[in-house]
Design brief:
Strand content: 15-25%
GO cellular component, one term: tRNA (m1A) methyltransferase complex
Radius of gyration: 42 Å
Helix content: 25-40%
InterPro entries: SAM-dependent_MTases_sf, TRM61_C, tRNA_MeTrfase_Gcd14
Strand order of the largest sheet: 1-10-9-8-11-12-17-13
Oligomer: single chain
Shape: extended
CATH superfamily of the largest domain: Vaccinia Virus protein VP39
Number of domains: 4
GO biological process, one term: tRNA methylation
Function: Catalytic subunit of tRNA (adenine-N(1)-)-methyltransferase, which catalyzes the formation of N(1)-methyladenine at position 58 (m1A58) in initiator methionyl-tRNA.
Structural class: alpha/beta
Number of strands: 17
Largest sheet: 8 strands, mixed
CATH class of the largest domain: Alpha Beta
Distance between the termini: 111 Å
Protein name: tRNA (adenine(58)-N(1))-methyltransferase catalytic subunit TRM61
Low-confidence stretches: 107-136, 418-441
Length: about 550
């Protein structure tokens, strides 16, 4: 079982994937990720507005709990833009009308005849159908509320929005894995167990350094998948994302078939195994045939000029134990295991103030000491005013003997909202937020910049996903390589005048020559000095000194 999807020929320049270079704005036919909420992402391929689509006069429409969003409102806008919901004509959808017609017909034969009649009418007037499909989409009208954000496709957002066919490798795991196996632009990476394609999209971005041409080595991912249905679905996604020339997908059982491509080595230096039993595939990832090291015809899938770095993704500790044992037998070194503990932090701004409404993210407490004193002064003034009014009414009641007046005052007090103790409720007015109130703030900053920046972590830490086992397989080392490396690292080996390479007698003779040379130099300097003194004396006395 070996089915390989080879990349396209390099006769023409391939279309660059939106995962690598999405551009500045959205385009027709491109993949976009709709962010409905913080953890609710939805992938969609944008379609051009070309008349009615699926019963909508506005063309293709995405319906969410936050409203309806025609594709025409999401085309040609910068990535990250906020898209307002639109009013769509859902009452004119053909499917609803057809459902009503079918429901009104009690007799099945009459319903079939009606449907056949409608089909005949449609076939008899193809021009009208074509005109309707090619009609210009209905003008979009914005709704009063509801919005989403449109994001470019990246491995991170794709991992959160892709259709799950298997357990996926999430961002905290694959970001650390790519770092440890040293995946960089220009690297060749082997992936066994493509699954849902989460790690494939992340790894191809890590090794991408351009699209390869004939005979040119570029960064590439060689992915293997055993399940046939997942293989075909993964191959379809790679074509839709324009990654099929950077990811070489193969349908194969790597336990028995290995990692060669058409009998040739991919010369990989980074390996990621997401397999149930990775220890059964490790014998294919060797420099020589483990069963017969003298076999000259055996081809290794590893790069002979670089060390290979591997990571296995196993959910159970028993798998880790067997994998580590197999690695030690096959010569892998620097073996260690890592478990990733992920915790998200949410950053927001908390607005503080007594005049703010009870909205989300608002702390209805005093912003500073001055605001607290002002509010206490206001409350105290109202309390004194209320106490004075209560005292006046009590004095009037004492001097008034009219029973009817007393009853009327009691009734008035009950309507006025008196408490059990005879005190009135002191109501503090909270002014709602308004653009004018924020414009008048002393800080002069916009509303979304008001308040202090706070960070809150998740209440629970998402700990175990799988155990990551890392190891390194060094390159083969011969005596010629050792001599070349020694000469490159220590160039003084070829020299002769170095301590440790000359015998004792030779060092003594060299020392004598140095001393004699120094002594001769001193005598010559003395003679030169005497000659200079003689010349100086002759000039001063005018007599030649013998």
């Amino acid at each position: 079982m070996d089915d390989t999807m080879a990349p396209k020929t390099r006769s023409q320049t391939p279309k660059i994937s939106p995962f690598l270079e999405p551009g500045k704005t959205t385009k027709v036919g491109s993949l976009a990720i709709l962010q409905l909420s913080r953890d609710n992402l939805q992938p969609v391929y944008l379609k051009a507005p070309s008349g009615k689509h699926d019963g909508y006069a506005e063309g293709a429409v995405v319906n969410t709990r936050y409203g309806s969003f025609p594709h025409s409102t999401m085309i040609g806008v910068p990535w990250g833009s906020q898209i307002r919901a639109s009013k769509v004509d859902t009452g004119s959808r053909g499917r609803n009308n057809k459902r009503k017609r079918n429901k009104s017909d009690d007799d099945g034969k009459e319903a079939s005849a009606t449907v056949a009649e409608e089909k005949t009418e449609q076939e008899s007037t193809p021009a009208e159908v074509n005109d309707d499909s090619a009609a210009v989409a209905k003008k979009i009208v914005a709704d009063v509320s509801g919005f989403i954000h449109i994001l470019p496709p990246t491995p991170e957002v794709w991992t959160s929005s892709l259709p799950h066919r298997t357990q996926v490798v999430y961002t905290p795991d694959y970001s650390y894995v790519l770092h440890r196996i040293r995946a960089r632009p220009g690297s060749v990476l082997i992936e066994a167990g493509a699954g849902s394609g989460s790690f494939s999209h992340a790894s191809v971005r890590a090794v991408y350094n351009g699209y390869p041409s004939e005979g040119e080595r570029k960064g590439k991912v060689y992915s293997f998948e055993f399940h046939e249905q997942r293989f075909h679905k993964m191959n379809q996604e790679l074509k839709e994302h324009n990654l099929n020339s950077l990811v070489h997908l193969t349908h194969r059982d790597v336990y028995n078939g290995g990692f060669l491509i058409d009998g040739k080595s991919p010369e990989a230096e980074a390996i990621f195994l997401d397999l149930p039993a990775p220890w059964e595939a490790l014998h294919h990832l060797s420099r020589r045939n483990p069963k017969n090291p003298e076999d000259k015809e055996w081809v290794s899938p590893l790069n002979p000029k670089k060390s290979a770095h591997i990571c296995t993704f196993s959910p159970c500790i028993e798998q880790v134990t067997k994998t580590v044992s197999a690695m030690r037998r096959l010569g892998w070194v620097d073996i260690d295991m890592v478990e990733i503990a992920n915790r998200k932090y949410h950053t927001s701004r908390e607005r503080v103030g007594l005049n703010l409404s009870m909205d989300r993210g608002v702390n209805n407490s005093a912003r500073d000491v001055d605001e607290a004193l002002s509010r206490l002064t206001e409350i105290e003034a109202r309390f004194r005013e209320h106490a004075a009014r209560s005292k006046e009414s009590d004095d009037e009641m004492d001097g008034d003997e009219d029973d009817g007046l007393i009853k009327r005052r009691e009734k008035k007090e009950q309507k006025g909202g008196r408490k059990r103790g005879g005190e009135k409720k002191v109501k503090i007015d909270h002014k709602p937020d308004s653009p004018e109130s924020f414009e008048a703030l002393p800080s002069g900053v916009p509303m979304w910049m008001e308040g202090r920046l706070i960070t809150r972590g998740e209440p629970e830490i998402k700990t175990h996903t799988s155990y990551l086992v890392f190891a390194t397989l060094p390159i083969e080392w011969t005596e010629e390589d050792e001599a070349a490396a020694a000469a490159a690292r220590h160039p003084v080996i070829g020299e002769q005048k170095v301590i440790g390479l000359v015998d004792k007698a030779a060092r003594k003779q060299e020392r004598r020559e140095q001393l004699q040379k120094a002594t001769g130099n001193r005598k010559a300097r003395r003679m030169e000095r005497a000659a200079e003194l003689a010349v100086t004396a002759e000039e001063e006395v005018g007599v030649v000194v013998p």
